[in-house]
Amino acid sequence: MMRSILDMIYKASEYLAAAFLLAIGVMVLAQVGCNIANSLVGWMTGVNGEYAIPSYAEFAGFFLAASSFLALAGTFRAGVHIRVSLVIQNFAGTKRRIVELWCVGLAILMVGFFGWHMLQLVLESLEYMDMSPGLIPVPLWIPQSALALGLLVFLMALLDAFAAVLGGEERAHGDPELSESGE
Q: How far is CA 82 from CA 72, 75, 142, 174, 175, in A?
């Protein structure tokens, strides 16, 4: 039951990340369309058009950050993060388990630290009503919340992996090298 809930959370986070990537693509294509329309208007009338999506670069940055952070748990579970497998593969049995626990434990501490401070930043932005400086002012707690959520889900995935290794599983997350060879 818990496994299916965790997997559902990881998958939902991946879908959100994909939706933000799609939003970036749609927004950039729309801005390219505006640029083309401006050129056509300029060519036909001699006066450049003024079509633009206000703050599109800022929104694209917000969406990219959200997508990157929301994808952390899913990519970790799939085994496609940059990892220390060059070191870990040299160990077997109990030694490998100890090294895996140390690595995942250190990652838990780091992600927990970053997540805590990201949450504090969100609360501070809410308290002071910080706004983005673009043409369309956006309350900064909104894009910051996506980063905090991504870190929280990633922390859950790391805790899940730590518990799996502690429970004796050989690999707590995907290993792309093993999955490609069919093992």
A: 11, 10, 29, 12, 11
